[in-house]
Amino acid sequence: MTEFPRTLVGGISVSRLIAGTNWFLGYSHTSAAKDKFITRYQSRERMVEILKVFMEYGVDTVMGPPAPVPCDAVRDLQQQTGREVKLILTPHFNILPGGPRESEPERVIEACKQQGATFCFPHQMVTDALMDRMNRVIRDIDRYTGLIRQYEMIPGLSTHMPEAVVIADQTGADVETYIQLYNPAGFLMQVEADWVMRIIDEAKKPVMTIKPMAAGRLLPVVGLSFVWNTIREQDMVTVGTTTPNEAREVIELSLDLLSRRTPANELQQTRSKTLLKESA
After folding, report:
1. Which of 251, 210, 260 is nearest to 52 (CA)?
2. CA-to-CA distance for 74 and 218, rounded, in angstroms?
């Protein structure tokens, strides 16, 4: 079986495809009803079965928040496969004094280490709140990346603001990578896709792109074709899936696209396509 291509982030080898967890946790970006379906359907055991498919192809990198269930599933996966997972956790924590003690930055970052994280990236709700576009700085970022280094994890930034990548590069922020929205629909993106394309291309560090299929608004082949063909060899794509079959489909589509092959994936079958099927 073909092993997925790899890249280096902070000296650590990771798969260029990253398994996302929004479709484990109920973050559908569609509706409350869809969120409830996901959370009622998913279980620790089902998450493990999905992640096993990724691991079959050498996709050993998983991204998500430090939530108990997906972290438990990652531990199960490692025990059952005997292979190490590169876990990317994206925590949020207090950035103002007076918040809950359990949300103090050091406590949260230490907890990420205890959950087995290799990488720790402050979540978008932290990073983008620290952005000071007037003074072109990310406030206090070195404090948080210093804590991440102290706990022997690799720091990066999770952001929805393309300016965060530019400012982090310009100020020499102590980060090894960036999580950045990128899809041809412009879903959740704050500027046009061609602007984000240029920012990714000029970034000083590898970029982990997220939401390539616009949270299910695009066909997999459409979103993945765009992203894989417009990022650099050091950059990555994060994909969330709900079932093992979906995982296998996006992996094989991605391998075909990276090899410049027209994907030969199984197509959907509906009555309206009967004539097309017969002519093929």
Report:
1. 251
2. 28
Q: Which amino acid is at 40?
A: R
- Does the pTM of the predicted model rise above 0.85? yes
Q: Which of 73, 67, 107, 59 is nearest to 90 (CA)?
A: 67
Residue 209's nearest CA partner among 192, 196, 195, 222 is: 196
How far is residue 125's CA from residue 128's CA, in Å, rounded to a whole number?
A: 6
CATH number at residue 261: 3.20.20.100
Residues facing 239 on adjacent strands: 19
Domain assignment of residue 72, given as a range: 6-279
How many folded domains does the chain comprise? 1
Is residue 109 a part of any domain in this protein?
A: yes
**Residues 226, 229, 235, 237, CA torsion sign:** positive
Walk along the chain (280 residues) and give the pLDDT tens digit of each residue: 789 999 999 999 999 999 999 999 999 999 999 999 999 999 999 999 999 999 999 999 999 999 988 899 999 999 999 999 999 999 999 998 887 888 999 999 999 999 999 999 999 999 999 999 999 999 999 999 999 999 999 999 999 999 999 999 999 999 999 999 999 999 999 999 999 999 999 999 999 999 999 999 999 999 999 999 999 999 999 999 999 999 999 999 999 999 999 988 888 888 888 888 765 5
Residue at 1 is within a domain = no
